[in-house]
Amino acid sequence: MSNENCNPFSKCEEQSGKIKTIFCTEKGKTYQYINKSSNFVVKIRVDECLVKGEQQRKCDFMILSCGEPKKAYLIELKGSDLEHAAKQILNVIQLFQIELSDFEINARIVLSKVYQRDIESEDYIKLKRKLKNRIKHKNILLSETI
User: Fold this and answer.
1) Where along the chain do its domains lie?
2) Which of 60, 63, 97, 107 is 20 to 30 A from 69, alpha carbon to alpha carbon?
3) What is the model's pTM?
4) Are 106 and 124 in contact (CB under 8 A)?
């Protein structure tokens, strides 16, 4: 699989290429991915494209970075329920474990506000352990240079 063809989810691709900055925005919350390494990257809509229906828990977006190592960023933009966001990301990891098996998985959660009880919740701790702490959460805007 070449760098330009590392996306196993092409039907839900919103952007791809050596894009300098990718924005994932919803209801006043934004995740900003700054592609300093100039890797080939792919932005994928998960909610209501890759995973449809109200019954399935799913995050909002996925960004695949096709450099070495290949990385997947699962992004949830949420009000204030960090524990539910963790459950959504855990479910997407489970649903697509085969497709994402070649990727280092990272979680990014942007919230309106975070409660201490959510940081200590079982599902958030489970996600942190599963991803070996490759998780970040922040209020309103999470911007990172990769």
Assistant:
1) 3-145
2) 60
3) 0.94
4) no
